[in-house]
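Protocol step 4 of 5: obtain the predicted structure for the target chain.
Materials: sequence only (see below). No template structures provided, no constraints applied. The aim of this step is simply to have a reference model before the mutagenesis design in step 5. Sequence pasted as it appears in the construct record:
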Amino acid sequence: MTIEESAWLRRFGPKSEAMARLVCLPHAGGSATFYLPVSRQLSPDIDVVAIQYPGRQDRRSEPGIADIDELADRVYQEIRPLTEQPLYLFGHSMGAVIGFEVARRLEADGIALAALFVSGRRAPSCHRDERAHLLDDAGLVDEIRKLAGTEGALLDDPELTYMILPAIRNDYRAVENYRWRPGPKLNCPVFAFIGDSDPKSTTDEASAWREHTSGPFELHVFPGGHFYLNDCAPKLIDMIRKRIPDSEYRV
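Step 4 output (structure tokens):
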């Protein structure tokens, strides 16, 4: 099966002989189109492939998956054949957690991941008891608005709210019920990015990502909240580009 034939994978640029591949994983309630700006800025030198979870957009009729391990298993199965080029993973918020678990599966399978980019998320070992998925619809909408993401504006429309809220609640359930299990550290570099006023991760919690890899680690703090990357996208994407010159780690 090709990328174009997969329900899970989206490529927004033309297929090319890129020097590396970057797989992007969306946040809770997010979709593959969130990474369209990444594809526009990095293609065709880097093959940008975004994950489309079930339960949203063109997959809205499919049941969502409310378990991080199952999501990671499915994503791993989809991208396992895409490792003929140096492979990089980028995940924001819930996507960072899934990216971490996919990275674990790849390395356990003997696949050398070039790097893991994690954004807007504390380290897996830094647990918080969060239960937003148990709130009623109004409470969940308020929670989403506090993060100032793109979904917040969509929730001003009752019809759109009806359409997208089930996927958001499903994803919140998945990430809030996730529990990190100790295991081997990753071998690949880990690059962490957060906003300086992100309510979902302190700088110390993001710094703890360094405990999850035996490879190089960097933490970069941007101005902004949980969705700092909406305003800082060009700078963030440029930083990613500079860390994908080839299959080797360079700064």
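Step 4 remarks: The two ends are 35 Å apart (CA to CA). Residues 247-251 have pLDDT under 50 and may be disordered.
Proceed to step 5.
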